[in-house]
Amino acid sequence: MDLVRDCLDKQLEDRDHRRMGRVDGLILECEDGQPPRVAYVEVGVKTLLDRLSCRLGDAAARLLTKLDIDTEPYRIPWGKLHVGLNTVRADVEAEKTPALEWEIWLRKKVIGRIPGA
Amino acid sequence: MKKIVEIALGIVTSVGGFLEIGSITTAAQAGADFSLQLIWAIVLGGLCIIFLVEQAGRFAAVSGRTIPDAIRERFGFNYFTMLYLTLVIVSLLVLAAEIGGVCIALELATGIGLQWWALPATFVIWLVIWKGTFGAIEKGVSMLGLVTICFVVGAFLIHPPWNQVLHGAVPSLPKHDSVHYWFIAVSILGASISPYLFFFYSSGALEDEWRETHVGINRVIATGGMSFGSLISIAVLILAAMIFAPKGIKIEHYSQLPDLLVPVFGHKGFWLLVASLGIACMGAAMEITLQIAYLTAQGFGWNWSENQRPLDEARFSFVYTIVLLLAALVVLTGVDPLSVTIVSMVLTAATLPVSIVPFLFLMNDERYVRSYRNGWLSNAVVIFVIALAFVLAVVSVPLQIFGGS
User: Fold this and answer.
1) Please, are residues B14 and B224 in contact by the beta-carbon 8 Å criterion?
2) What ipTM was predicted for this assembly?
3) What DSSP assignment string belongs to A46-109?
4) Integer Cα distance of B193 and B44 in angstroms
5) Which residues 41-70 of A are in CB contact (within 8 Å) with B?
6) Staple B80 to which of A83, B54, B72, B198, CB 3.0 to 4.6 Å?
7) What is the domain range of residue A21?
8) Do B300 and A21 touch (CB under 8 A)?
């Protein structure tokens, strides 16, 4: 598998095919004498901004931390993933993961309070 | 029979959704300033958009993805960020211009200043998106948008010199005001080759659940819809050329727009113009608002669909709500909608390469489009459009500075 071509930036879905973001980053583990192996995929703003510029990622993380917003990316173990042709499916329930934290917050605090939502 | 109905509805939708404040303004200015000489720019823009829209629809029908979705996947996050920021900034300006267009129509109809209409008009647009489904918005607004055919009827009734109309369809060098001539040509191309049109079309194809079997229908709809849409723009140009140009009248204020139809239809022409402007701009505003929300949701992998309840896709709904508020704020600042329109069309032209270059790669990638890859003609046209886009990107801003007055 070509990790960048076949996995990075692909649509991420949970076990019920609910969209839960994209594969924003890949975490490789290196052990002595062993070839590197993919340990996790990451989903999160900090991971994305780091790809643009590490300085930008750090500055955004500092700002968000001051605002009491968790910037830690959500990691999904490689073993829980199935890389398909169009999507990467994770054996998790999206609603119970930090990947949909903002979605749930907006649903409860903003959109849910507007009549007709 | 079902296919014929589907094609007819698709063409109606494309025609109804084609005309907006940018195409009306640029075509009218072209006619007033250079008579029939700039028809070629609309024809060229129309041909380009036919190919791009057809490819966006074919891509969505075959791959089950939208163009922005595939751009993020194929070109990575950094390229997507550049495309995203460029498109959002330009689209926000175009959206402000469209809301301004709705407000102008309301001001013409009621006499109440356009700024007073910014928030009510924005609220109505938001409410339709909030409560409506994709099909209702797409077909409802587009059916109403067919009122813009009055421009075509008007162009026939005014009896233009048809041989000169045909001559105008062939590119020619300006006889006076060269810089202004090229500025208007660039603005027309910016209004015609709008990235929001083909990105929205690919999202719409998925909203309408297009499959591989729709490839043929897509071709007919893209060609028919965009051709008829361009025909309406040409009709606006002809009317301006026949009414404004002989008297040497320049279009400097939106209050002059009713004069396009009043000489042909009398007082009814005033109301036809108000209805055409209001409905066309409202339809375009809805499409652009949704397109920014689609682009955001598709790029970041969120849930998106205009057919779901806002509660089920809070981030998608939040984005279109904020986008509309920001665009309304631009109108509320009191900036002249005509200036916003022209600047946004020029900026659209300036940023075209970012949106169009990916087409060449995506439409030839078997992983996405399998055996429906571009043929030599489609590739040749995309390469031509990319070259044109680069030229427009280089010349548009200097032309705006030196020829935009």
Assistant:
1) yes
2) 0.93
3) HHHHHHH-HHHHHHHHHHHHHTT---PPEEEEGGGEEE-SSEEEESS-GGGSGGGHHHHHHHHH
4) 10
5) 48, 51-52
6) B72
7) 3-113
8) yes
Distance CA B131, CA A114 (A): 12
Q: End-to-end CA distance of chain B, in Å?
A: 52
A31 CA: distance to closest CA in chain B (Å) = 28
The structure tokens 């949909």 sit at A100
pLDDT in tens, A88-112: 999 999 999 998 888 999 999 999 9
pLDDT computed for residue B1 by the predictor: 66
Q: Which domain holds residue B18?
A: 2-403
In this structure, what token pair is assigned to residue B359? 């087409």
The tokens of A16 are what?
């019920």
**Are the Cβ atoms of A11 and B311 closer than 8 angstroms?**
no
The count of domains in chain B is: 1
d(CA B274, CA B255): 11
Question: How far is the alpha carbon of A97 from chain B, nearest alpha carbon, in Å?
Answer: 14
| Token duo for residue B53 | 């829209």
- Helix (H) or strand (E) segment spanning residue A12: strand A11-13
Residues A36 and A113: beta-carbon distance below 8 Å: no
Contact A20, A11 (CB under 8 A): no
Q: Which of B190, B160, B157 is nearest to B37 (CA)?
A: B160
The DSSP secondary structure of B221-278, one letter per residue, reads HHHHHHHHHHHHHHHHHHHHHHHTGGGT----SGGGGGGGTHHHHTHHHHHHHHHHHH
Least CA distance to A99: which residue of chain B?
B302
Q: Give the confidence band of B395 by pLDDT, cuts at 50, 70, 90.
A: confident
DSSP 8-class letter at B160: -
For position B44, which CATH number holds?
1.20.1740.10
* B378-400 per-residue burial string, b: 16 or more CB within 10 A, e: under 16: beebbeebbebbeebbebbbebb
Tell me, what's the pLDDT at B137? 85
For residue A107, list chain B residues with Cβ-Cβ distance below 8 A: 311, 314
pLDDT of B158 reads 95
Instruction: Look up the CATH number of the domain holding residue A35.
Output: 2.30.30.240
Q: How many domains does chain A have?
A: 1
